[in-house]
Every structure is written in structure tokens, then in C-alpha cells.
Amino acid sequence: MIWNIRNLVVFIFVIVMWMIVDHLHINNVLAFIIIFILMFLVLYMPILFTVIWDSNLKRIEKFLMSRKNKPEYHLFYTLAHEIDEEVEDSIRLLLQKYKGIHKQALHKTVLAFYKKEILTVKEEIELIKPLAYKNYYRAIVCMEEGNNAEAHKIIHDIPTPWMRNAILSELELKSNHYAAALKLAQQALHQSKGLQKYVLFKTYQRKFPEMQSVNGTQL
């Protein structure tokens, strides 16, 4: 069996940590728990940081490009760059991988919204479990149907600041209030982190010529 570098690092890490806890005469069960937690932190915290909290767009893009074989990450890259065929391929793979009703509904909603199939979006959003995402897409549907008053009501029930400002920006843009839309888009971008920040930035690059860089970073 040929090990890759990551497996080798994990193997060495476990051996070294086991030697340390053995030297400290720690109970085997407690030692196993400690090693497991430390191994999780070493392996997955860098990934979680990039996915959820990172604001360095170049680092996020590098992360996404190195994981093109993983649909849960590649979907963000394809959405950001509007690569139609690969968006559909990524979601098809995710639907095959995740069979839960709520995750299926979210992935189907993302695809339907991307393809501007509003009727499908309306059907699927009722099965989305996270209320923030459900209301986010509900507000978008209302906006697409021209029901801006209802969209505003729903927006105020969305707890995530970047989501609220992103939709408000779209509403202002549809009303031809470009300056207000730009300001709200900038706020949404500032409030977002991780993979979502990357998708927003690439999207806003196409919508707003002024937003070609963020914090001096240009992609």
C-alpha cells in the first residue's frame, strides 16, 4: 500500500502522541480521546477555517482549485465562475452522495435558482430545514415575482446579515438604484466569510465594475 503524505503525517502524529501520553502515564481511554481530538484539530481545523471563517480570497481560491474532485467544494467554484455544465455535474454528484430530504432540497433549490426555474425553487424551499436558507430563497422568489413588499417582510426574519444585505442589494438593483445596491453589496461582502465570501465576490465582480478587489485582493 502506497501512502500519501497526509496519511504518513497522521501516522507519525498518532505514534508520537501515543508515546507522549504513555510517558505521562495517562489512562488509555483518556489518552485515546485526547489523541482523537488533537488529530481532528490538526486535520480538519484548517479546512473548517477556510470554509467558514477565512477572508483571504486567494487562499480560498487555491483551496477550491485543489479540491476539484470533491463536489461539495467544487460547487462553490463553479457557481462563482458560472460554469453551467459543472454546476449541474457537481449538484448531480451531491444528490447521489447525500440522500437526506433537507440536503436534497437545498441542492435542488440551488440548481433551480441558478437555472432561473422559479417554480421548482418554490416547491423545493419548503423542504429546506435551516430557516435562514429557507427564508433567503423565499425572499428571492418574492423578488423575482415582483412582490417586493413581501420580500422585505421575509428579509427582516433572516438572521444572517450578509444574506439580508445581498437580497436588499438585488432589490435595489432591480429598482435601478445602483448606488444603494453597490453599498449593500459591499456590506454583504464585508459581512461574509469563507467560501460564501468567494462566491459573492466573484458574482459582484460581474455586477459592479467598482468591486474588482476587496482588501487589496484582486482575482
Provide a descriptive summary of the structure in words.
With 219 residues, this protein is mostly helical. It is built from 12 helices and no strands. The longest helix has 26 residues, at 28-53. The two termini are 40 Å apart. The model has no long low-confidence stretch (mean pLDDT 86).
Give the topology, please.
Layout: H1 5-23, H2 28-53, H3 57-65, H4 71-81, H5 84-97, H6 101-114, H7 118-124, H8 131-144, H9 148-155, H10 161-174, H11 178-191, H12 194-207
Helix pairs in contact: 1-2, 4-5, 4-12, 5-6, 6-7, 8-9, 8-10, 10-11, 11-12
List keywords for this structure.
219 residues; mainly alpha; 75% helix; elongated
> What's the overall geometry?
elongated
User: Radius of gyration from the CA trace?
Assistant: 21 Å
Structural class comes to: mainly alpha
Low-confidence stretches: none
Secondary structure tally: strands: 0
Q: Give the SSE order as H and E letters.
A: HHHHHHHHHHHH
Mean pLDDT: 86
How far is the first residue's CA from the last residue's CA?
40 Å
How would you sum up the major sheet? none
The helical percent reads over 70%
Q: β content, as a range?
A: under 5%
How many helices in DSSP terms? 12
